[in-house]
Specification:
single chain, Nuclear Transport Factor 2, Chain: A, 2 domains, 4-stranded antiparallel sheet, about 25% strand, purine-rich negative regulatory element binding, PUR-bd_fam, DNA-binding
Length: about 140
């Protein structure tokens, strides 16, 4: 039984993370990198058995914690996101179709950006950007 947990596209590579169960009932984590090479794909596979998965994850966290690719500590970035989500619980979350419909309805009811922000749990700037994307402009109400 294989259950795909995650798929990540980075440049020309796609990473697949899935878990499967062996005949003996042990769990196996497979990480596959699939990289486009002309018309073909080159694949590299890493298999970790259940007794090694936790150690592998701990090592990855330790190494990634030392990376600072954008000039900022990763923990600080995580803290920043949590602080924003304390004020706006839906910050950085994907907009659903229902969110878009709710936003459109509130816009048509002429609620302010601040009121919409409060009701949708998103920052006012996020509301403004989404309104632009949905082409909700003041002249629609005139």
């Amino acid at each position: 039984m294989a259950t795909q947990l995650e798929k990540l596209k980075v440049g020309k590579s796609i990473y697949f993370f899935d878990v499967s169960e062996t005949k003996t009932g042990s769990m196996v984590l497979n990480i596959v990198e699939s990289r486009r090479n002309g018309e073909k794909f080159d694949r590299t596979k890493l298999t970790l058995f259940d007794e090694d998965i936790i150690k592998f994850a701990q090592s990855m966290v330790a190494v990634v914690g030392k990376l600072d690719p954008i000039g900022r500590n990763l923990r600080e970035e995580e803290d920043r996101v949590h602080a924003i989500r304390d004020k706006y619980p839906n910050a950085f979350k994907v907009w659903s179709q229902k969110d878009d419909l709710d936003l459109t309805a509130m816009f048509m009811d002429q609620l302010s950006i601040e009121q919409i922000s409060e009701r949708l749990g998103r920052a006012p700037k996020a509301i403004s950007i989404r309104m632009e994307k949905l082409e909700l402009h003041q002249n629609l109400l005139e």
